[in-house]
């Protein structure tokens, strides 16, 4: 084995890189070390598995370990890389058979991120979850599913069927943490839940848990839900959650989870709210500790610093995905926004670069979408004025509400768009959108515009599609551009 | 009255310009001459009025004549401008009280377009329609509505109610052509229809007429429906129309409509198909004859030539909307693509320019969307290779079908994207999309990309939104870019 491509981490970035290299250069040895048992899973799908809209954990796997092997990739699960020696070009690996060294020709660090739970005392109680691993999702769904529904009844058409005979069989993948799942399956299902954190995980889980008829209390320290999406989205989503009987408590910090072995209550400065399930979604941090003490540098965010090709500060060492920084399309500065497309795209580009075709990993705009019951939300770029000022801009914003279709066409829905621009240059810096009719997908228009460095007047003049069933003459995005344009010094 | 702004034509372009100028410069006199009775109506909504999804013709009015007057605009309906004298800066007008001259300070020609029907012999028979005027839409709906449904029953919740008491009252606007409507209302409703032309009017009307349980035969001379949308869209739409029992006959030229007074049949080279309604949707032509014999020049398309501010070749004379050429975003050359947003945008910009703030009218990309039953279709830019070569490009295209959402998320639908690029530079030239799940609105991403001169590799690297309910990790647009990128000489 000569010049192998070694990948640390078997999820989106790692397996995209491994697959792309293997496709372009089948002769090259590719080894992926994954410390856990799960590979290539759709983390963004977990709330919908917990909710019950996705039948099987298996559905969330993009690639099974067998499919990875079929691509000629040497996948080693339950192998943790515990050290990187860039001088020798080796990694130190701990597997079931002990510790060993492995040389690499090129190395990709794709170790992902982990959910933060530590600041919440009691996060280790039974009944407290983060939703950042497949095992946790499996255990949570087992906990939520009443025994009567788990043996074939309420679980959709059962997917592959076969092993669908009892509550413990819900997570129908052989390498799930069965002990944990069975423990939760044996417990009385919860009737009330606290969600700690009102970011996208919190909002998606509010919908998921409500589907199980739980009383859901959502605690959010900031004054708004989804703060990254701007005030207008946060307000709309809070109202929508309330409409669906979620008890939304913004501006409320959770001090701790109370209970002896099991979660019994959430404690805030003012109150003790009894719950028997707690879901902590207060953020994630990069898994970047592996590079400490090596010449591979971390950036200001704590994630691994990379250049436009995903290269780290060490020769022939790349980093990608949730553990790596990327360049932001608006600021041009390194930033850390862990999202699925970014990981896939960067991994694929690095695979290509390692194969001999230098391919930029692309920039990030922080484009994201989230569903909150019937509301579709999107955001991109820089919306927040503090953040814009830090980046050297003089921000100006407008928020407008306009129809999603021609007013006379059935189904037209209010769509609220916020745009932020730089006052002097008119450059579009960011935007958000919320509404019930095809709202989220419209954020891609704004993402494309800001990655193309369009100004607001240029955005206003875009020749977008008009057809009564899909968009009014002036799409809400264009209406917002018109209004914001009027606020700019050189207003047309 | 000094230095008046005179507008010829009271629809989208004309009234947008008039309104914008009046808002910016309330002191300026603004006169709009409209030869008909209708102003500011949503032509794109007519198929949905005929279908019955839109209750009232009134719903299609963006502005009533009264609302126009409230803006301080001197609107003269039933006044036709029959001559323009640019040397004297006057127009010659024919109104009910005779012919008169009127001076202008600035002039806007916004005379629109007309539906072509002449090439089809028999287009003047009773029962033959084009769907390019409100009176025609009113007459057609009266014809389609059985007497039993017209007095309050099957017509939705009746909109304004009031005058909803009989079949002739369906078109509830006082200045509708009542004689024509009543004539059709008195006739036996049709049971079968021929649609001549398979462009967007033909496709929308196939859906509209099917809703009235007619046997619908659609005749299209080219081999594909919606030729401007490319082959993939055309094929999908033809299959969908067939699924809905529309008899689709592509590659079939209609020789004439047969009948003595009323339409009785459609005659092709091979066949005579009995029908009692014919809808002709074979295209439109600009109403530009008014400028012949003046220094105001027409372009190669026959529409009025304009510059980036909508100025014609005569001093202080502008043209906008369906009668005017615009610059194409991809070719940089003058082109004629009569669409609603273009008219509104150009009119508004001209109003601003006349008010003293020079404002570009913007470019056109030919972005359009159309609904064909459950299919949502979009197109932008240059898809056709012959057209691309004429413009000096070396075109290469790919068509891919990908999911609209994560595969595991309910409701994911096949979405087919075609992209055309220039082989050497990789520049995106155009694209189309078709699918049932939020497909059409995705065309705006492509429109924004090509108006920003993005290359296909740049498109592939865009940071678009990913959330399982709305888009897979790689949106269909990105999948298409990836595949097309692989065909480019400098493929990454």
What does it look like?
Chains A, B: It comes from Halopenitus persicus. Chains A, B: Residues 371-472 form the Pyridine nucleotide-disulphide oxidoreductase dimerisation domain. Chains A, B: This is NADPH-dependent 2,4-dienoyl-CoA reductase, sulfur reductase. Chains A, B: Residues 152-163 have a biased composition (Acidic residues). Chains A, B: Its cofactor is FAD. 2 copies of one chain form a homodimer. Chain A has 3 domains: 5-112 and 285-354, FAD/NAD(P)-binding domain (3-Layer(bba) Sandwich), CATH 3.50.50; 128-282, FAD/NAD(P)-binding domain (3-Layer(bba) Sandwich); 374-486, FAD/NAD(P)-binding domain. In chain A, 57% of the residues are buried. Mean pLDDT of chain A is 93; it is low at 151-169. Chain A has helices at 12-24, 46-51, 65-70, 134-144, 147-150, 178-185, 200-210, 231-243, 340-354, 385-390, 443-451, 456-460, 476-487, and strands at 5-8, 30-34, 74-77, 80-85, 90-95, 98-103, 106-109, 113-115, 128-129, 192-196, 215-220, 247-250, 254-258, 265-268, 272-274, 278-280, 284-286, 317-319, 326-327, 334-335, 368-372, 375-381, 395-403, 414-422, 428-435. The radius of gyration of chain A is 24 Å and the shape is globular. Chain A contains 13 helices and 25 strands. In chain A, strand 11, helix 8 and strand 12 form a beta-alpha-beta unit. In chain A, strands 3-2-1-7-18 form a 5-stranded parallel beta sheet. In chain A, strands 9-16-10-11-12 form a 5-stranded parallel beta sheet, with helices on one face. With 492 residues, chain A is an alpha/beta fold. The N and C termini of chain A lie far apart (65 Å). In chain A, helix 1 (12-24) runs parallel beside helix 9 and helix 4 packs parallel to helix 6. Chains A and B meet through helix 9, strand 21, strand 22 and helix 11 of A and helix 9, strand 21, strand 22 and helix 11 of B.
